[in-house]
Specification:
306 residues; mainly alpha; two-stranded antiparallel sheet; 6 helices; 4 strands; 57% helix; rod-shaped
Length: 306
Amino acid sequence: MAMSKRFCTRCGAPIPDGAGFCVECGAKVEPAERTADNQTTQPTATQPTQPTATQPTQAVPAATTPARPAGQPAQSEAAPHRRLDPSVIVSMVAGCVIVASLAVVLVVTHPWSPTPATDVAATDASTEDVTTTEAASGAATLSATSAAPAAQSSTAQTSAQVDYYDSLESIYSKLSGYDSRIAACADTFNQSYLSTSMSTRQDASRVAQSLKKDIDDTSVSLQNLAIPSSSPYYADSENLNTLIACLDKRISVICDAWTISLSYADPTGHSDEICAPLKRDNDSSGHNTYKQQFDDLYASAAPTRH
């Protein structure tokens, strides 16, 4: 029978028949023993043993790659490389940036450096000065803020008083002209109230009515000012109101007389009836009482700037 194949007990390489040394590692191989039935006896171990820690100093022939068993992957095949998740990379970079930022802050602020006592005292003193300054500034600001409404109110009142004066002065400047126009209407009446010409009397009546309207409009303007009794111009407004009332009374009786005159196509013989309105406001001497009151008050009623 053929001899069974031998293997090196050190490296496991197959041993050719009749060889005394392993062709792979150079280890000495024991010669094969023959049994009684003329078969070669294999060393006891069928599994190659692990090489010892000490290697022979003799030269080792070039090793050949041992055959790999069927189904076993080749040693040279590398395991597939695993790619990192991009989110993991971003998190790692962000963490590094945060750590670096904290390190910079710590270096700049030196929280571990003790503050000298003198610096603390100086800082406290500076803080106290700033606090005192801010308190004084706050008090000044509060005072200024409180004074602002009062100043605005005073300015508004002053502006209102100026407006009062300007309006009263404008009204007062018209009164003398009204007085002269009333006198002219009275003269026209005396000349024309018995005229047989209706158009002449109508024209004269329209002039008197127009003057009365102007006086009434001025009275309304004065009332619309609504000057309060606390104003220094209140007395002036009352004087102007009296003067305007006198003017209105005087022109009103003339207008009433023209109304009676125009009721007749020929007013001849109706003189007493026509002139009756003019006499109702006359005093015992025949003078119009409102004309007297106007003349007495006009000069002193001029508004005075306060």
